[in-house]
Design brief:
With 272 residues, the protein is an alpha/beta fold. It has one domain: Purple Acid Phosphatase, chain A, domain 2 (4-Layer Sandwich), CATH 3.60.21.10. The chain is 31% helix and 16% strand. Helix 2 links the parallel strand 2 (31-34) and strand 3 (59-61). It is globular, with a radius of gyration of 17 Å. Keywords: Hydrolase.
Length: 272
């Protein structure tokens, strides 16, 4: 019985299947943690989403920014973007059960001292706080107002946490931290302009994992393909799992029991 955490699939279905085969993954015994962005940009978005749903209780998945984008397009009145590969999902006969499954996934998954989110953990938040904030978003997505929630979800404000944030401002910030964050300043202010490697950090900002914490959680995240699975200068125990499969890199799994990484090469020819 093993637990594996796999980086961003982004619709790379052939590589997903190849990696599961290389791991000898057994859905009746093993557990799979998916770090979000299951879909979009790659050619097998529909197949990846179907497979993740079909694995049932063997999968624990968190929502990434591209997963939210699909929900906003499908149920929040959003528009597809130029490089999206969502049309097959939107036209599929089983689209509604798949979307229901996706909309029911959390922003954070924890086990013991290990926490998985798509983008990371704000240094000012504990693991317990992150899980509690994730539940707030889950409740909003499950509630009668989920359509309005998805309509108003995207935006860059507020860009700093306050415990007294309420309503959509509070929920939007929680989503932005766990699904979109890269660079922050020492007070936890988010920057959304810089999306490349560490050299693209704005003045006064640094990667969220370069700020020390008072506790010592084991943090798993994806989202940041430009890091190529590395976290230079990290001040926390952290594992970057997005190794850029959809951009021509590789798809990587981390064995949470042994710490071993297993990868398969990309079959894509994508460019960031």
């Amino acid at each position: 019985m093993s637990t594996y955490a796999i980086g961003d699939l982004h619709g790379c279905y052939a590589e997903f299947v190849a990696l599961l085969e290389k791991l000898n993954f057994n859905s009746t015994q093993d557990t799979l943690w998916l770090v979000g962005d299951v879909i979009n940009r790659g050619p097998g978005s529909l197949e990846c989403l179907r497979e993740a749903q079909a694995l049932g209780g063997a999968v624990r998945c968190v929502l990434g920014n591209h997963d939210f984008h699909l929900l906003v397009v499908a149920r929040g009145g959003g528009k597809q973007k130029r490089h999206d590969t969502l049309s097959e999902i939107l036209a599929a006969p089983d689209r509604e059960p798949m979307l229901d499954w996706l909309q029911g996934q959390p922003l954070a998954v924890s086990q013991g001292n290990t926490l998985m989110t798509h983008a990371g953990l704000l240094p000012q938040w504990s693991v317990e706080q992150a899980v509690a904030y994730s539940r707030e978003v889950e409740q909003a997505l499950a509630g009668e107002q989920s359509g309005r929630f998805l309509t108003e979800l995207f935006g860059n404000q507020p860009d700093r946490w306050r415990e007294d944030l309420e309503g959509m401002d509070r929920l939007r910030f929680i989503v932005n931290v766990m699904a979109r964050m890269r660079f922050i300043d020492a007070q936890g202010q988010l920057d959304f302009a810089a999306k490349e490697g560490l050299e693209s950090a704005p003045a006064g900002f640094a990667p969220w994992f370069q700020y020390p914490r008072d506790d010592d959680p084991h943090l798993l995240f994806g989202h940041w393909a430009a890091l190529e699975g590395k976290t230079p200068g990290a001040k926390v125990r952290v594992e970057a799992l997005d190794t850029g499969c959809v951009w021509g890199g590789s798809l990587t799994a981390l064995n949470l029991d042994t710490g071993e990484r297993v990868s398969v090469p990309s079959q894509q020819q994508g460019e960031r």
